[in-house]
């Protein structure tokens, strides 16, 4: 028994928390205005901005101190579009920045009503975008962070004198209401509510049908002074009076009903204080299903016969109280329900075309007539549209300043494209790829969505040929990097410097015309699914050969969409990069050995061969012989160097060592040997030479390839110790430095050897 009571008690309490809080008096509302004006004084545009900002934050800037930054940052849109959603929407970096830019303008601007059309090709996910956006807006608006107030009248009927006969009056009222309802419903003319909300204390509660902000009820001629006094001594006063975003507080009028009721009450009661006691404020809650605050129309939703909503019960009650039925009319249109809220059209076709045209006419004229009265429409008007549906609204398309288009194209940020694959097919797909190859799949898809000629990039880079190891001739690979927010390492210092904010803006601006054709989001998932079902099940990881094979042989029809030469360039960039990785992994192992060699050499040049000495820097016991010098000098000068040039080199080194390095740098300045000029120069030479040649000995030794294959198997023990050490370091460095798995590291080494990449890039 107690458990039932407890459970019920808890349920009741939880539900109180969730349900609408009781209205607060005008005075309490004003207290709240003063204590947190930035929250309580927001119109729909400001709250929309705050909502986006609250969900996605400030964004991450990879180059925070870059003086040429255009603040093209990485926004994390997951809370807004992905979490708690049946169908996540993935906003790429370009679109996220566009959206943030839009809402910032909305917040800043002195608002004129506009229709914001999100224009995107089929399969770009725009309906998912709008649905998720509105769902989160609803959640936000109903939360404490997103709170806004709306006006509600609470009228004590006793103020108007004793009612003739309370009980019978209400029966008559109800009867009258029912009769009117009956009559009008059967004629299909109007939509009627017959309910008079009544508080427990006998007060009549009448919400503003247009969800007016309560502050608007203060007559405009008094507002400025009132607010000035309200914010006396507050730093917010300055903001309120100067920030364009708050202009609405001084400009907007309450709805016709509230305005009329206010005047009528003042006339009847002759006491503003009494009237202001009837003004209450409550949390403006959005409810998409009821169309309160948010209404979303699909093209197939047929129009209702009558747009005018009445509430005869309230009307009768008001007439009785005010005894002047001609002035105050509780009637409003459906648009009032989304005043200060969101009105959205899912696609502009069939019935939504009519809605769009109606909306456009209303906002162009600034006001809209409901029967005899005028109604304000101050809503966030959103629509999504396919480019092909532009024909439906072509009469407004070009010249209307009431329409703002925001492009919502296919994903052009390769990181987002990969995120979509992972979301659809599971995170573990990545494990089936060698590093970089999954991103390259995305690069192929994205290449079909970009323009092939980029004026902005050509103006900046000039001749694309100079980057042909890293980039295609159309510079699409460069553009893709920039769209992800990265400035590639391989750019020359000169080009890096030339990447001014003006150039950056031009490049990003090009994205506004891209992503409308090419492989759609929907199709790219189909293609990936097909690709992965073929190659994802193999024992071998997916590499670039397989990827190119798929596009050039299996999906030849796609080659028409992929720009000519793109796959070759992608392959070249990949090959060059992995070759560098393998080389570096071999070379890094040698780092300690290089230092030893140079220190021993610098020590040894002071002796004539052949002697054995202990090096003072390394404590190595060195046999200083001609062979010793030959070995190191061949690495410093190249194996083709003549004996004469080696001898000369050795003499110069010895001279510098004794005259400068030892006497001045080491003894006088207290530097260590590795900090000296000569050490640094020898090290540079050594590294350069060794990197170039590092693979040679292994490529010529077929044991090396087999040892890689047998790495970490019992057979590995059968190899020569030298090879075992090299292979082990190579594999481990690839894992540590370049995030390969052991299997991946083995496979990429074999890939480099089998494709003879060292020779392909020998001259580079
Ligand atoms: Zn109102």
Question: Kindly state the mean pLDDT as a whole number?
Answer: 89
Main structural class: alpha/beta
How many helices? The count is 33
Largest sheet: 5 strands, parallel
DSSP, total strands: 16
Bound molecules: zinc ion
Helix fraction, binned, reads 40-55%
End-to-end gap: 84 Å
Shape: elongated
Task: Give the neighbour order of strands across the main sheet.
Answer: 7-10-13-2-14
Stretches where pLDDT is under 50 for at least 5 consecutive residues are: 181-190
Count of domain modules: 3
Radius of gyration: 37 Å
Strand content: 5-15%
Walkthrough of the structure:
There is one protein chain. Helix content is 52%, strand content 9%. It is α/β, with parallel strands linked by helices. It has three domains: 21-408, no CATH class; 414-576, no CATH class; 581-760, no CATH class. A five-stranded parallel β-sheet has the order 7-10-13-2-14, with helices on both faces. The chain has a four-stranded antiparallel β-sheet with strand order 1-6-3-5. The chain has a three-stranded mixed β-sheet with strand order 4-8-9, covered by helices on one side. Helix 17 (414-425) packs across helix 18 (437-447), helix 25 (566-604) crosses helix 31 and helix 30 (702-709) packs across helix 31. Mean pLDDT is 89; it is low at 181-190. The structure holds zinc ion. Zinc ion binds at residues 151, 208, 210, 212, 254-255, 257-258.
């Amino acid at each position: 028994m107690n458990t039932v009571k407890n459970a019920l008690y808890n349920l009741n309490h939880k539900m109180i928390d969730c349900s609408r809080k009781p209205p607060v008096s005008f005075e309490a509302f004003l207290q709240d205005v003063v204590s947190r004006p930035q929250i309580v004084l927001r119109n729909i545009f400001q709250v929309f901005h705050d909502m986006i900002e609250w969900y996605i934050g400030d964004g991450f800037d990879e180059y925070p101190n870059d003086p040429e930054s255009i603040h093209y940052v990485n926004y994390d849109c997951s809370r807004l579009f992905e979490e708690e959603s049946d169908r996540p929407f993935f906003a790429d970096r370009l679109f996220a920045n566009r959206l943030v830019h839009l809402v910032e303008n909305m917040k800043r601007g002195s608002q004129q009503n506009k229709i914001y059309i999100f224009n995107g090709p089929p399969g770009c996910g725009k309906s998912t975008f709008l649905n998720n956006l509105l769902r989160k807006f609803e959640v936000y608006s109903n939360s404490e962070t997103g709170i806004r107030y709306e006006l509600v009248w609470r009228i004590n009927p006793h103020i108007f004198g004793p009612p003739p006969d309370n009980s019978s009056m209400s029966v008559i009222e109800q009867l009258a209401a029912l009769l009117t309802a009956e009559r009008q419903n059967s004629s299909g003319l109007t939509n009627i509510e017959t309910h008079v909300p009544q508080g427990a204390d006998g007060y009549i509660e009448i919400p503003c049908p247009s969800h007016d902000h309560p502050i608007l009820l203060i007559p405009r001629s008094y507002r400025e002074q009132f607010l000035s006094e309200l914010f006396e001594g507050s730093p917010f006063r300055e903001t309120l009076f100067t920030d364009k975003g708050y202009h609405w507080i001084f400009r907007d009028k309450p709805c016709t009903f509230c305005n009329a009721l206010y005047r009528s009450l003042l006339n009847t009661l002759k006491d503003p204080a009494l009237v202001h006691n009837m003004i209450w404020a409550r949390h403006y809650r959005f409810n998409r299903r009821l169309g309160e605050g948010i209404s979303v129309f699909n093209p197939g939703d047929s129009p209702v016969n009558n747009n005018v909503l009445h509430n005869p019960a309230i009307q009768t009650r008001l007439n009785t109280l005010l005894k002047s039925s001609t002035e105050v009319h509780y009637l409003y249109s459906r648009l009032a329900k989304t005043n200060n809220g969101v009105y959205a059209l899912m696609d502009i076709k069939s019935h939504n075309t009519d809605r769009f045209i109606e909306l456009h006419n209303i906002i162009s004229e600034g006001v809209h007539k409901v029967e005899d009265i005028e109604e304000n429409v101050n809503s966030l008007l959103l629509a999504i549209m396919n480019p092909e549906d532009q024909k439906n609204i072509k009469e407004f398309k070009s010249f209307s300043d009431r329409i703002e288009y925001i492009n919502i194209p296919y994903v052009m940020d390769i990181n987002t494209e990969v995120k979509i694959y992972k979301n659809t097919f599971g995170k573990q797909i990545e494990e089936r790829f060698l590093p970089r190859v999954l991103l390259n799949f995305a690069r192929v898809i994205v290449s079909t969505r970009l323009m092939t000629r980029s004026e902005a990039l050509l103006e900046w880079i000039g001749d694309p040929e100079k980057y042909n190891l890293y980039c295609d001739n159309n510079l699409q690979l460069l553009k893709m990097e920039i769209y992800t927010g990265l400035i590639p390492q391989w750019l020359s210092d000169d080009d890096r410097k030339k990447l001014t904010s003006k150039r950056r803006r031009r490049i990003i601006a090009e994205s506004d015309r891209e992503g409308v054709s090419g492989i759609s989001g929907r199709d790219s998932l189909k293609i990936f699914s097909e690709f992965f079902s073929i190659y994802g099940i193999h024992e071998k990881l997916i590499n670039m050969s397989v990827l190119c094979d798929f596009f050039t042989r299996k999906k030849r029809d796609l080659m028409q969409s992929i720009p000519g030469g793109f796959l070759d360039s992608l392959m070249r960039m990949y090959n060059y990069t992995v070759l560098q990785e393998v080389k570096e992994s071999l070379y890094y192992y040698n780092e300690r050995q290089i230092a030893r060699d140079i220190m021993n050499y610098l020590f040894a040049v002071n002796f004539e061969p052949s002697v054995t000495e202990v090096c003072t820097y390394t404590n190595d016991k060195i046999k200083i012989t001609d062979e010793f010098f030959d070995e190191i000098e061949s690495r410093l000068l190249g194996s083709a160097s003549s004996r004469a040039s080696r001898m000369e080199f050795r003499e110069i080194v010895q001279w510098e060592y004794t005259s400068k390095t030892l006497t001045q740098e080491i003894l006088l300045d207290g530097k260590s040997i590795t900090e000296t000029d000569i050490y640094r120069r020898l090290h540079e030479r050594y590294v350069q030479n060794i990197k170039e040649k590092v693979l040679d000995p292994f490529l010529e030794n077929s044991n090396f390839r087999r040892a890689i294959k047998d790495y970490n198997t019992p057979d590995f023990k059968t190899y020569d110790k030298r090879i075992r050490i090299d292979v082990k370091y190579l594999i481990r460095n690839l894992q540590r430095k370049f995030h390969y798995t052991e299997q991946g590291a083995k496979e990429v080494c074999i890939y480099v050897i089998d494709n003879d990449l060292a020779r392909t890039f020998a001259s580079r």
